[in-house]
Every structure is written in C-alpha cells, then in structure tokens.
Write a structure and sequence with these properties.
Elements lengths: L1 E3 L9 H23 L7 H21 L7 H26 L11 H22 L9 E3 L5 H22 L3 H18 L9 H17 L9 H13 L16 H4 L1 H9 L3 H13 L1 H13 L2 H13 L11 H17 L6 H16 L3 H27 L2 H4 L26 H17 L4 H20 L7 H7 L5 H26 L8 H19 L9 H30 L12 H17 L1 H6 L19 H12 L6 E3 L4 H5 L6 E3 L12 E4 L1 H6 L1 E8 L2 E8 L1 H4 L3 E5 L4 E4 L1
Parallel strand pairs: 3-4, 3-5
Antiparallel strand pairs: 1-2, 5-9, 6-7, 8-9
Length: about 725
C-alpha cells in the first residue's frame, strides 16, 4: 500500500506544496483560535503545535536550499533539526529586538505566536522563489505490510500505560513486559526473524521512545538532577516574559532550555513540566534513528541496528539523559552533524550550510557536549591531514608494493588509498571555534567559558600527581570499587567487555579497510573518542566534570558500531579455530552471538535482572521504594508552600531532596551537615516522603571527584524544632 508522502513535502511541486502548506497552517491557526475562545479539542492544539513547530520550518529551509530526494528518514531528521534551529534563533531575535521596540514581554503567547507565523511566511516565500525551477515529484510513503509494524508501534503506548499503572497503583507488570519485548526484538534481529529490514528504522525509533517514556513519565513532576535547575530557568523566562541573558549560570546560556521550552510551552499551551516529559523524548528518540542511518550507510542494516541497540541499551540514555534536556537537544544536532559529515554525495555548499547550522545549534544547546566535540575535531583533523600527507610523500614504489605498506589506513574502501573530498576541514573547525567563543564569552556573563577553563586548570595541576588515583579519576574509581553483589560484579565484566569489543573493532576496521566502509572522518573522530574514554579512566577530574557514565554515553555516539565490528571479527577468528562454536546455542552466526550478548547487556542496564532476583535493584521505573530523585505531588506541594512564604531564610535539605528545591530557588537551600549541631537557628528544614516514612536523611560527602553517601537518623535533626507544615508526604520544620 502506497500513500502520498507528507514527510517529503519539499519534493512536491510548488503549487501542491503551497496549498498543502497553507491548509496545514490554517487548521493549526484555527485550532489555536478555537482554544483561545474556549472551544477546546482534546490534544488537538498540543499535537498540531508540536508538528507545526518541529517539522514545517525545517521543510521550508530544505526547499529553499533546493535539497531534494534525500529519502524519508533524512528529510525528517534534517527538517526537525533545522526547525529547532529556526525556533531558537526566533526566540533569541524576539528577545533582543522587541524590548528595543517597547515590547517588554517578548516571551508572551500573542507576540511569540504572531512572530513565528510571520517567520514561517518569510521562509515560505524564500522556499517558493528559490525552488521555482523544481519540477516536483510525488514521492509515496510505503506502509509496511509486515505484522511487526503495528507491534512496534504499540511499544510506546505500552510504556505510557505502564508508567500510569506504576504511579497510580504501584504495578510494574507492564513495564516488565515492555523490557522483555524489547529484548525479544533485539534477539529477533540477530536471528533474522520476525522483524524485516524495512522495519528497522521504525523499530529503532519505537524502542528508543519506549525506553525514554518508561522513565520520563514516572511521577507527575520532573525527576532527576539538572532538569530542576532547567525548569527554574524556564519559569524565570515565562513568568516575566523575558529572558535575562546576564544571569550567571552556565545553563542560562543554553537556548535549548531558555528559548525552546518556553516556545513549545506557550504555543502548545503545555506546562513546561510536560514539555520536558512528553515532547523532549519525542525529539531525543530521533538521535538513535539518525545514528542508525549514519551507520547503515557505511555498513549494513543489521550492523546498524545492533550498534544502536547497544547505544540505547546503556542506562544513561533513558535515565541520566532524561534529566538533561539541554544535552538531549545538543545530541540531536551532533547526530545530524554525523549524518551530514559522512554524506559525500551532497553539494558541498549545502553540506557546509547544514554543518555550520547544526554546529551553532549544538553550541547554544549544551556547552559540555560542544567542548568535547570541538576538542575531538582538532586531533581528528590532524590525523586525517597527516595520513594524507604521509601517503603522498612516500615513494610510489613503497606504497604500491603489497605487504610493505598500505596506501592509507584511513582511506575508505574502493579508493585505492586516495581520499575523497573531505568534509572535516579546517575552515569548519575555525568557524566552530569562533561561534563557541563568541557565544560562551558573552552570554550568561561568560560562565560557560570560565567553567571549561577552570576544569582545564584543575586537570593540569593534578595530571602528573594524581593520574590513576581513584579519588580524582572517577572512571578508575568505578573500575576498582567493589561491587555490592556477585551479579553486579558480572554486570561490570559485561560493561568492560563492550570496551574491549570497541577496541578490537577499531583495530579490525583499520586493518581491513577494504571490508569496512567507514568514512575517514567518522573513523578519525572515533579514534579520538576512544582516547577520551581512556582519559575518563586515567585523567584526574576529567570524567567527573560530566560523570563517567555520561562521558561514555557521548563517546558511544561514534564508537557503538565498532563494538559490533569487533564482535564479528572475534567470532570469525574463533570459528576459524574452533568449528564447534557454531553449533552452540545462540552462536550460529556472529549476529546471533552479538544479539544475545547485547540483550544480556540491556537486561543488566535496564535493571530487569536485578529486579527479578531482588538483588540491589537499580531501575528508576521498576523500583518504587528506594531513595531516588523522583518526587511525588505532596513533596512538590510542600516545596511550593515553603517558597511561597516569601521569607528569605536558608533551607536545609538532604542530598536527594536538594534537587527538588533547586527548581524553585537555587540560592536558599543548604546541604544538611553530618553533625546536627551545625544546623543554624532561624532556618527551615525540609523533609520529603522518604525522610518522613523512613525517618532517615541522606548525608553526602565529597572527596575530590568522588561523592559518597550515608543515611542517618532524622530524629537528631528535628529535636527542638517546630513542625510548621505537614501534608503526610512532606514536612517543614523551623527553629
């Protein structure tokens, strides 16, 4: 069955495109106007606003660039990335220009709505005039006839229903089932059963979104760490209707938070909490899809699927990243950059435009990821240049004689050692550096630039004295620490094995360039990212600036495919020596063995295994009784009451509840000290549900880069204090 493909509207002829576009816009504006006068259609405004903002501006930019016949996946990915860039620039422009014209609330619905519609009309005019000569086509969308398609589409709904049952009735049965089904999909691809190749992109997006929703939707409030500060900054824009770019917080300079979230919230009429919990996962789930497409174009579909299954199986993807909205958006732009970088068929000018646009969008989305990517570009570029120069400077009789010297280890297959036009060039790196410096040095009082300078100074001052020291090198501390149980020790071995597979895969790729069609730019950056992984273990204060798990997650953006290549190389080497391996269960082919291994990896990371055997459970979604930064309505209500009092007194709070209060006012809360006598008088003490029910407080201590925590009796801290608030889920004391 084939239907007209609305996801490739940029390929339509101008007349059809114009009338279809205006019809969509008319419906959207009509639904918004009906909503404003009180005639609300459930979900209509939210859904149409999301589609309008996320897809249509980017489609117009693609048409203005005359980029056609990209295919459905690339068209969707590029249009979303360009749309987000347009929205962030629109928010920045409105915040800069309107106050000069006397409008002091640029982030108000009326002004922002009219501005976005006007910007879209300008883009429509540019698209139609610049693409006037395009003859147009009628690309069709193929609806998969496989029964796997509806099954995969149901996975996100299973996650939604499962989180509802968890929150309301403390039932996690459906979430258990969801994780088991995802594991079965992984095995099915490895065994080449049930899931056809045509469904791989759908499977990637559906599984990624399901994993994100199975954690993001727990609780009716944001949960985690940094996201509470991000929510505070968003409210700091929405309440006054203006973004104060001088507030000296690193996060305050990130348009992915202070511009993008307010725009989605105002236009869709969604509370920022639900923008974070519903809309951002829809965007972040595109990251695995973009990476899958990049890997598939360089290898094949099954290697692409298994590498991305490895990528989103790692727990950081659906736990830590849920509480880092700015990094979610930045990773989308990095994934799009990778996809553009490996495309050697695109016109160079259009390719340069996309790479610079995505670079700027990444810079204004997350400083940490931008720094890591930039500092990997320089050595990767040098590696490519030296490789090229070495090849051309060697005598031809040496490079041409087999067995003596390969022409170029980084050259792709089929080139005879000759490099094709490189997409990682010095002007791109210089533009990236200039944009990063200008943005980070001017916005938010230059705190983002000062932060990386401070980290660099700390690393330099301790590099030679504290390398390999577990108290300063967080990665080394994780490797050398004693696991709580034998099962957790086995999980650590599995994690270390993935690092070994990546190393073997990189070596195999370098040794057999004629087999693995990895583009030189991708391979060069991957080699640098492997060194970043090593630095996270060895270099003091390097991984702790982000967290080791986040650093590893970032490097997997490039390194995940090499784990699959390494697994295939090891399997083939083992089979060459021990033929009986192929008759062992789950070892019939390399793909079967790898799918079984990474399904085990997934079951450990998701916490399903620990939950089943009740062995120190780790899952945010499956474990409902532990002390985690997941806050219920009564805790939020208590925090709101506390800050609504308007009395500027310090508030003492323990290590977990500290993050909840951070979302209300980052200046007033203080960590509860280990000694109760150090708590000052005339201060508040905030207890959450865990404190009240367990009569326990989490006390944290930091030694260099390592944080440790112990729990102590709460009774020592509430003696001689008066309870001034209690809602059976949170309490406030005062003395």
């Amino acid at each position: 069955m084939h239907l007209p493909n609305p996801l490739r509207m940029n390929d339509w002829d101008n007349k059809t495109f114009f009338w279809a576009f205006q019809a969509i816009q008319l419906v959207f504006v009509g639904v918004v106007c009906l909503d404003l006068v009180g005639y609300q259609i459930p979900i209509a405004r939210e859904a149409l606003a999301f589609l309008y903002l996320t897809f249509l501006p980017g489609i117009l930019v693609l048409k203005a660039l005359r980029l056609h016949n990209l295919g459905t996946i690339e068209t969707v990915l590029y249009s979303v990335g360009l749309s987000l860039a347009v929205l962030m620039l629109t928010g920045l422009g409105a915040n800069t220009v309107y106050p000069l014209l006397g409008y002091t609330r640029p982030f108000s619905f009326a002004i922002l709505f009219l501005t976005i519609v006007a910007v879209v009309q300008v883009l429509l005019y540019l698209a139609l005039t610049r693409d006037r000569g395009h003859a147009g086509s009628s690309p069709k969308i193929a609806v998969p006839s496989s029964p796997a398609a509806p099954f995969l589409m149901l996975l996100p709904f299973l996650a939604i229903i499962g989180t509802y049952l968890r929150d309301e009735y403390h039932m996690v049965t459906l979430l258990f089932l969801l994780l088991v089904l995802i594991a079965i999909v992984g095995l099915a691809v490895g065994f080449d059963r049930l899931i056809p190749t045509s469904c791989y992109p759908l499977a990637i997006y559906a599984i990624a979104l399901s994993l994100l929703y199975h954690t993001s939707l727990i609780s009716e409030y944001v949960w985690g760490y940094d996201i509470h500060h991000e929510l505070h900054l968003v409210n700091g824009v929405l309440i006054p209707g203006f973004w104060d770019m001088t507030i000296p917080y690193n996060t305050n300079g990130m348009l992915s938070v202070v511009a993008l979230v307010p725009i989605y919230s105002l236009i869709s009429d969604l509370d920022p909490v639900w923008v974070f919990k519903i809309l951002y996962p829809l965007l972040f789930a595109l990251v695995p899809l973009a990476l899958y497409r990049a890997v598939e174009k360089q290898t094949d579909a099954r290697i692409g699927f298994l590498s991305i299954f490895f990528f989103f199986s790692f727990f950081t993807f659906y736990t830590e990243m849920i509480s880092l909205a700015r990094q979610q958006i930045a990773e989308l732009f990095l994934a799009l950059t990778v996809l553009v970088m490996i495309d050697k068929t695109m016109d160079r000018n259009r390719q340069a435009f996309l790479m610079v646009t995505f670079a700027f969008a990444m810079i204004v989305s997350h400083y940490g990821l931008s720094y890591i990517y930039f500092f990997s570009l320089v050595p990767a570029w040098l590696l490519l240049v030296v490789s090229e120069r070495l090849h051309f400077s060697l005598p031809e009789r040496l490079t041409g004689r087999p067995g003596i010297l390969k022409p170029d280890l980084l050259a792709p297959s089929g080139t005879g050692g000759r490099m094709s036009a490189r997409t990682l060039v010095l002007p791109y790196i210089l533009v990236f550096a200039a944009l990063a410096y200008l943005w980070y040095s001017t916005v938010a009082e230059g705190t983002a630039l000062a932060t990386v300078t401070g980290i660099g100074d700390k690393i330099w001052n301790t590099l030679f004295a504290d390398s390999f020291n577990p108290t300063t090198a967080q990665g080394m501390q994780i490797l050398t620490s004693q696991s709580t149980t034998p099962l957790h020790s086995l999980a650590k071995v599995v994690h270390i094995a993935t690092q070994g597979l990546i190393s073997v895969g990189l070596l195999a790729t370098l040794a057999r360039r004629e087999r693995w069609r990895i583009e030189p730019e991708y391979l060069a950056v991957s080699l640098v990212f492997l060194l970043i992984n090593v630095a996270g273990i060895v270099v003091p204060f390097f991984s702790s600036s982000l967290n080791t798990s986040r650093l590893y997650h970032i490097t997997l953006i490039f390194l995940a495919p090499f784990a699959i290549i390494g697994g295939i190389a090891l399997y083939e080497a083992a089979v060459g020596r021990i033929r009986t391996i192929q008759v062992a269960p789950f070892m019939g082919t390399a793909y079967q063995a790898l799918s079984a291994f990474f399904v085990v990896f997934f079951l450990f990371n998701s916490g399903l295994i620990y939950q089943v055997v009740d062995d120190d459970p780790t899952s945010m979604a499956l474990e409902t009784t532990g002390d985690k930064p997941v806050f219920n309505g009564k805790e939020v209500q208590g925090a709101r009451w506390l800050f609504s009092e308007g009395i500027e007194r310090p508030i003492y709070v323990d290590g977990t509840r500290w993050w909840l209060l951070l979302g209300f006012d980052p200046h007033r809360q203080r960590y509860i000290p280990a000694n109760s006598s150090l708590v000052e008088p005339s201060t508040y003490l905030y207890f959450g549900t865990y404190n009240v029910v367990r009569d326990s407080i989490r006390i944290e201590a930091q030694e260099h880069a390592v944080t440790t925590a112990v729990y102590t009796d709460a009774g020592w801290f509430i003696r001689n204090r008066n309870k001034v608030y209690d809602n059976a889920g949170s309490a406030v004391y005062y003395r």
